[in-house]
Amino acid sequence: MDIICLLVLAGAIVVAVEAWGNDRGRAAARTSRRVRAAVLTLAAGAGALVVSGTLATAAGPHAGDPDVDRLGELYDAVYVHVRVSAVFAVVLAGTLAALVLERRRFPGLLRVGLVLAAVLVAQGIVGEVQWRTRLPWGVVLVHVALAGAVWATTIALAALAFRPLTSLSRPRA
User: Fold this and answer.
1) Domain ranges in the chain?
2) Topology of the domain comprising 3-168
3) Sign of CA pseudo-dihedral 128, 129, 135, 140
4) Is there a contact between 8 and 149 (Cβ–Cβ < 8 Å)?
5) Which region among 54-58, 91-95, 129-133 has the lowest average model confidence (pLDDT)?
């Protein structure tokens, strides 16, 4: 994925969330500033995560034409990608903490955050497997597909945090 693909996918996710909101309705209340700041930080971290993963792929054996020089050293690229992954996981933990504080008003947002956490755990497991098995093409393909899922779920969470749907909020008693 390159930057344009990331932006197109993000735009499509935001349009889908907006269409869903137009169909199902929006919550009357807004999320806290803390949640909105957390999801923006998370989205920036997801961008860094996917870009660092793209650079790691570009440095590896599945970058395309075997006669073309790779982009950088594989070990260096993976070193950076793993550290960016760790930072993203910490930011996700902080975002989940902010969503826990909002769970009474927006329990659905916490569920979306937990789905993102589950996808990220699966992504990390597949990443470790692909590294330890010397990057078999099929496992790399699954890792790339999960990267798209991490990005899409992060953008969906951010869009929903800024314009929450009625179905994600708790009805007033």
Assistant:
1) 3-168
2) Four Helix Bundle (Hemerythrin (Met), subunit A) (1.20.120)
3) negative
4) no
5) 54-58
